[in-house]
Amino acid sequence: MSVIDAAQFTRLFSTQAGVSVLQYLKDLTHNKVLPASCSDAELRFLEGQRYLVSQIENLIKQGKQNPSI
Questions:
Q1: Does residue 67 fall inside a structural domain?
Q2: What's the CA gap between 19 and 13, in Å, rounded?
Q3: 1 occurs within a structural domain
Q4: Digit-coded pLDDT (tens) for 14-28
Q5: Closest CA to 14 of 61, 68, 48
Q6: Domain extent for 32
């Protein structure tokens, strides 16, 4: 697996297309509410998706704070 630095995420998601894609991912994950009747598996799956989007957001923030990394 290759290593991607935070600055690459910042560059990618700073474009208009990147901003749109990130918003779409947030709409699918962070802005989604599961019903009380959802299964444990559904909840875990959604939390995994949310974690991945949060990781992307954290890398974007790191790239903005430390562009030389």
A1: no
A2: 5
A3: no
A4: 999 999 999 999 999
A5: 61
A6: 6-61
